[in-house]
């Protein structure tokens, strides 16, 4: 009889707990919403210069050691050149010796989209801007502590804001 009473009590408490959760007035945390930027190819061509268009929209790559931000050392924020989304802080920038600006972390992981890239006979992780879909570069697992990440970014994909 005691076992049956205990079983009924546990089931009742579980049911009450479930109902109280369903009727809860506690606000739930809001998820980060990104206002997507969608444009036609013709609209992008009017906004971006030819090199930016080729990299950001067609997933091209600038030549190593050629980008304006490769050796850039000012303090500030790097934003997407296509839509202005804030992507990287200068304090995460480091010289990886690879020929492209490199960062150890993004400002917010929701600002980029990670996609497996099997192009050019390699397997890499491509990163694109979550807001506009622009190709930024790739991320590798050979960066400095504490993240161990190296976000290898095309200079033409970003702009610098002091």
How would you describe this protein?
The chain is an alpha+beta fold and 162 residues long. Helices cover 22% and strands 23% of the residues. It has a single domain, classed as Beta Complex (Metal Binding Protein, Guanine Nucleotide Exchange Factor, Chain A), CATH 2.170.150.20. Strands 3-4-8-7-6-5 form a 6-stranded antiparallel β-sheet, with no helix packed on it. Strands 2-1-9 form a 3-stranded antiparallel β-sheet, with no helix packed on it. It is globular, with a radius of gyration of 23 Å.
Write the layout of secondary structure elements.
Layout: H1 2-22, H2 41-47, H3 50-56, E1 77-80, E2 86-89, E3 93-94, E4 102-103, E5 112-117, E6 124-129, E7 135-140, E8 150-153, E9 158-161
Antiparallel strand pairs: 1-2, 1-9, 3-4, 4-8, 5-6, 6-7, 7-8
Let me know the largest β-sheet: 6 strands, antiparallel
Structural class by sheet pairing and helices: alpha+beta
Residue windows where pLDDT falls under 50 for at least 5 positions: 1-31
Strand residues, percent? 15-25%
Q: Regarding CATH, which class? A: Mainly Beta
Q: Rg from C-alpha positions?
A: 23 Å
Average of per-residue pLDDT values: 84
> What name does the CATH topology carry?
Metal Binding Protein, Guanine Nucleotide Exchange Factor, Chain A
